[in-house]
Amino acid sequence: PPPESTSSEEWLWNQIKAESLRDAESEPALASFLYSTVLSHPSLHRSLSFHLANKLCSSTLLSTLLYDLFLDYFSNNPSLRDAIVADLIAVKHRDPACVSYGHCLLNYKGFLAVQAHRVANLLWIENRKALALALQSRVAHVFAVDIHPAARVGKGILLDHATGVVVGETAVIGNNVSILHHVTLGGTGKAVGDRHPKIGDGVLIGAGATILGNVLIGEGAKIGAGSVVLKDVPPRSTAVGNPARLIGSKGKPSEHE
Amino acid sequence: PPPESTSSEEWLWNQIKAESLRDAESEPALASFLYSTVLSHPSLHRSLSFHLANKLCSSTLLSTLLYDLFLDYFSNNPSLRDAIVADLIAVKHRDPACVSYGHCLLNYKGFLAVQAHRVANLLWIENRKALALALQSRVAHVFAVDIHPAARVGKGILLDHATGVVVGETAVIGNNVSILHHVTLGGTGKAVGDRHPKIGDGVLIGAGATILGNVLIGEGAKIGAGSVVLKDVPPRSTAVGNPARLIGSKGKPSEHE
Amino acid sequence: PPPESTSSEEWLWNQIKAESLRDAESEPALASFLYSTVLSHPSLHRSLSFHLANKLCSSTLLSTLLYDLFLDYFSNNPSLRDAIVADLIAVKHRDPACVSYGHCLLNYKGFLAVQAHRVANLLWIENRKALALALQSRVAHVFAVDIHPAARVGKGILLDHATGVVVGETAVIGNNVSILHHVTLGGTGKAVGDRHPKIGDGVLIGAGATILGNVLIGEGAKIGAGSVVLKDVPPRSTAVGNPARLIGSKGKPSEHE
Known about the structure:
3 copies of one chain form a homotrimer.
Chain A: H1 8-26, H2 28-39, H3 44-56, H4 63-76, H5 78-94, H6 101-107, H7 109-125, H8 129-143, E1 146-147, E2 152-153, E3 158-159, E4 166-167, E5 172-173, E6 178-179, E7 184-186, E8 198-199, E9 204-205, E10 210-212, E11 216-217, E12 222-223, E13 228-229, E14 237-240, E15 245-249
Helix pairs in contact in A: 1-2, 3-4, 5-7, 7-8
């Protein structure tokens, strides 16, 4: 991993360009795709804006509008660019199936959904709610990842496979969290207001886990695949089953496949 | 909520136009989208026909064909238009994350999938099975909601988030039912013929619940998230777990987030 | 079912053309769709190449490129064509909701995802990994079926409904396996290298089942819906629950709805 400094973005962009150039040379069938998505762009956030706009556009929501929107927000918010970098490094580091940074940038719908969400979240905060909700909707349609624009999401996030992830309006996700596909951070249906889970730093949530209500999943905790969690889970502990029960704890957060 | 009369559709359409006009004024980036999907149309069912056709078309199944199909069925079947109105009101009423009727009309893939299903169901009944199955397939591809065209679905339906919902051929869903994402109303694989669940009025089915076989979920019952239900569930009771067990009952149906 | 001979492909293609002609005549709204996807093509694998290319293309990955790719691999690999035939027959035979071979060819996203995967798998084996991963990504985006290109998949496969299926890098799926939607063949996150399930011939995996780690599901075994399986399952036995437990065994593999 590169040094965590202001040059991480530059370092990462150079890596991605080198990867894309190598792939374009070894696989001519991909050359046009790699030039249009990566190699023709002057920066990581321009490449990402172009790629997201093409993915999320529709016949009534034009790619040019989306491109301008993403480019505007990524250009003017260094924290969004930091998060892009942190996520790319997290995915490459934690997912053994991720062969390169470019692989994540171009192919991981969880990564793309999270970057679009961060823009939707800023739109929501700025009270541009209609546009925030339209963006959420396009992400839910195209990537099958439904994150309410009000949900707060940290950095270093891995949404692996990502299909079917649902994150409710008042959910909060910390830093360095790994979430597998089909995970729900939802409401119980009995509460209004602050009604969704709070996920601590370094948590790992297995495939198909459902966490409901304003519960706290402590830092470094692990939630087993298919678990249904309705209560707080202490830091560094592991919860499994339906309903979930604790099965022990560890001294430090574990890494995730 | 408006009075349940023949003017509900008119009342609702005026609401949606007012919402869209307000959003188009406050968010110029959405103006073109809102004009093409809502404000340029003379009625709710024309707006919906246009929107569905654009969502569901492909390079080989043209939007004009789908537009004509939806418009024809919605125009000639008042019960379909009643169901559209009932669903919009149900979603706005039951889902605290739904900020407006237009939000549901334009953005909720569960709502859109159900309206397309109702047309597919009429096609199936009229023995236009090839077209019904083609429509089911487009809905499954585009919205990740797979409802067999023969399944019977009531009014006042909320499919919240909707990704991954599967409803089998002989399933029946009553009125005012709320179904979260990843819910399956499927077969056990051991039976032929009438082999799928029957869901009573006012039932709430939590995220990821799997209900298999020709079982009856009584009116007002609640099925917990992640449950696997293989037996009847009495009215107004709550079933949770894998396999599901009853955990009590209530005097009246509960509302759903 | 036709005789298992070298003429199966021809027999099946004639069936599909007859079905399509019948549907085009009875449903003029579908005639253009059926001509462009089936009736204008000289063979099953050309029809499938065209259909897959249209489904999987994007504004940056052109349909012509994908069409040439599929046609090249299907034309030059008889084993791919045998697998197409075996899968079509399996789906028609095992899924009571499948009304015709053409219904599966045109509408079943699980069928389409598996055929695209087999090409991705050959690309992976030939060390064309960037293109294999790009193809996996398109399949995951378009069909919500995420099969790592290195995973080995047998013949006679039914992916029913298919939304949300995830198959990891070192997974192996035998012949005549039926897998419902939301099924995960994943890793535990604790292992590297050979870390995914091995599924024997004739296994049936119910909706939402999660099988994790390098475990062996013996031939003819059945995994109940919603199960979480972390250990080997003996041949012809049935495992259900979270965590899964065995509930008996049978003398021979069962068929699947």
